[in-house]
Amino acid sequence: MGLQVIVDFQVIDESDDWIVVNKPAPLIVHPANRKPEPTLLGGLENLLSFELETGGCLGIVTRLDRETSGVVLVAKHTAAARELGMIFERREARKQYLAVVLGWPEQDAWRCCERIIRAGEIGHSEIWVRQVTDARGKDCETRFTVERRFERAEGKFSVVRCFPETGRMHQIRVHLAHSGHPIVGDKLYSGSGEEYIEWMETGWTSALERRLYLPRQALHASCLEVPSGDGYLRWEADLSPDLLDFIEGRPLKEAAGVVIWSRHD
């Protein structure tokens, strides 16, 4: 028997129209223009091969960054993708994220409404994807509440629940950094982006670990709700073990990341 490739993710819920999964980090959602690597989409195509053979067509409804874990909603056919897409376009869906951030916010709850624009549109930027706050950007709004404040040997940290009211690229990360509390492990927004450039050149190093603490950004899509009938469908995903270890003060494991490939004869 040949090698079988299994992509590591957890199914939360499923219907004839959609499937909801808990994506680990650093699993990428869909293929990028890089060397071949396992993707969530590829794993779902394996899992749902019968539906695809009988006319199905997968559509990722809620995309997450490679380094963000948590709830991902995927449509199983074109009609479902269209209907779910309209729900998000009308901003009728409700999202919650959990972030582990640097420092202890002074307020227990706050709102950030800073507009966001790609840095390269208003000046020189070595990082194409980096976003910045600027009055020339698109409207953007996120609510935050502090769930927990804690300390480790490395310093003070907080767990913050995030409620994005809009769906701009990197908005939670940008708004938390703007608020003075960047996400632990965020290479793009912990500073000016130099950590990201260094990581791209050298990979994860002990020097980066001393500055960022975690090899991936500590952001987790914890809850998603979409309207259905007279109410809402609600899906939740527990925090991943690496973030729980960090919050509970347990020693940091070596930065091997999450095992994505499993090979069986």
Structure characterization notes:
By secondary structure, the chain is of the alpha+beta class. The protein has two domains: 90 residues, 2-Layer Sandwich (Pseudouridine synthase), CATH 3.30.2350; 130 residues, Pseudouridine synthase. The chain is built from seven helices and 14 strands. Strands 2, 3, 4, 5, 6, 7, 10, 11, 12 and 13 form a ten-stranded mixed β-sheet that branches. Strands 1-14 form a two-stranded antiparallel ribbon. A hairpin with an 8-residue loop joins strand 4 and strand 5. The longest helix is centred in the N-terminal third of the chain and has 12 residues. The radius of gyration is 19 Å and the shape is globular. The N and C termini lie close together (6 Å).
